[in-house]
Amino acid sequence: MRILIYGLNYAPEVTGVGKYTTEMAELLAARGHEVRVVSAQPYYPQWRVHDGYRAWRYRRETWRGVPLWRAPLWVPARPGGLKRIVHLASFALSSLPLLVRQAPWRPQVLMLIAPTLACAPGALAIARLTGARAWLHIQDFEVDAAFDLGLLQGGGASRIARAARAVERALLRGFDGVSSISARMVERVIDKGVDASRALCLPNWVDTSAIFPLPQPHAYRRRLDIAADSIVVLYAGSMGAKQGIEILADVATALAGRSDIRFVFCGDGAARRELMTRCAPLPNCHVLPVQPAELLNELLNLADIHVLPQRNDAADLVMPSKLTGMLASGRAVVAMARPGTSLFDVVSETGVVVPPEDRDALAAAIVALAGDPQRRAALGQAARQYAQRMLSPHAIFAALDARLAVLAGGAPGDGAQPAVADTAAPAVASGSTLPAQADRSDV
């Protein structure tokens, strides 16, 4: 089957949506499909175009056997509000010629990865032009996030929000299939007007052969001069507006008197600078940049306790992708989540859940686990077993293959679908690594 994947993020980005889109393309190609990708210049999570790439150039690459066309885009140094809109719109516009270029190839399925929904009009137009079935896969409800998390504020924001949500509903209904990464997010898709027969849960996955418990994870402890008997609390992931990571500095400050507890925060994003400023005077904190993909397993094994903050208003706007890397590493997890959310459902079985934005509850949970090695070990074992049982890429992609076959074989909009991945399955963080380089050429 000829599958065109259209999305903002792709390798060599090693975190977030880019990791998933890359692995989806590679796994579909490995299952015998012809796969092509239209994406942007890599920039995430640093919010600057990666070395070796130029923001305003088109580029043709082959990445691990998958043909890839990159479009220019504008990347703001400090994203927020209207800057994000211009950022997303720049890619939506610049990528249109690349979509048109793929029309003679006549893809059978065009899969748009959201964010960004700004690309939906172009994706739908090319799908209709070529006779392809249009599939929208939602990693992040960007419209809801922009308004519910306060990324867009000011006079008239409520009117703009109503208009944006009306456009979003119309666009969603134009796709032959709409998927998202957790059961609660699929429910939100249906609430937005997508017929239930066209909506499905397509969770992310974790490669448990790449992320696994290490018996003696000493490399990072030596590098950071952390004693073997210290309890390490680790946050590794994006540092953006939706993560609510400011609470980590609050907790580290509150527990600064505990010499046996050390905090390691690793990642990049718009909120990293403030986190570094607040943690600089604290003797119990280390802030690291994004680490090489080949060191991910070693990094995750640094943790005695993984911590996963979340803003209260994020709820089911996103399912934190970093969670299942945590689960696969076989370490205890403390997550902030409300009852009734997918994150709560998963972590309540495999870790400790505290209310979002409750600094005292998070600090208390960390202290309790720090003093209870038996419980940490039991939770880590439960987390690892869950990852092995529920998050296999083989099962997920077998269901995806079946859905693609029906989608491509039926008439556009017929809504037919076979059994798919269990809609109770959570979104997960992938643990497989990305290659260090690709074959490239300007176009």
Give an account of the 3D structure.
The protein has 443 residues and is of the alpha/beta class. Helices cover 38% and strands 17% of the residues. The chain has 16 helices and 15 strands. The strands form two sheets. The chain has a nine-stranded mixed beta sheet, sandwiched between helices. The protein is globular, with a radius of gyration of 21 Å. The two termini are 26 Å apart.
In short:
With 443 residues, the chain is α/β, with parallel strands linked by helices. It is built from 16 helices and 15 strands.
What keyword list fits this structure?
alpha/beta, Rossmann fold, 2 domains, 443 residues, six-stranded parallel sheet
Strand neighbour order, sheet with most strands: 8-7-6-5-1-2-4-3-15
Low-confidence stretches: 411-443
Mean pLDDT: 87
- Characterize the largest beta sheet: strand count, sense, and whether it forms a barrel: 9 strands, mixed
User: How many distinct beta strands?
Assistant: 15
Beta strand %: 15-25%
Calculate the terminal CA-CA distance, rounded to whole Å: 26 Å
User: What's the architecture of the largest domain in CATH terms?
Assistant: 3-Layer(aba) Sandwich
Domains (count): 2
- The fourth-level CATH homologous superfamily of the largest domain is Glycogen Phosphorylase B
- Which structural class matches the secondary elements? alpha/beta
CATH uppermost class of the largest domain = Alpha Beta
Which descriptor suits the 3D outline? globular
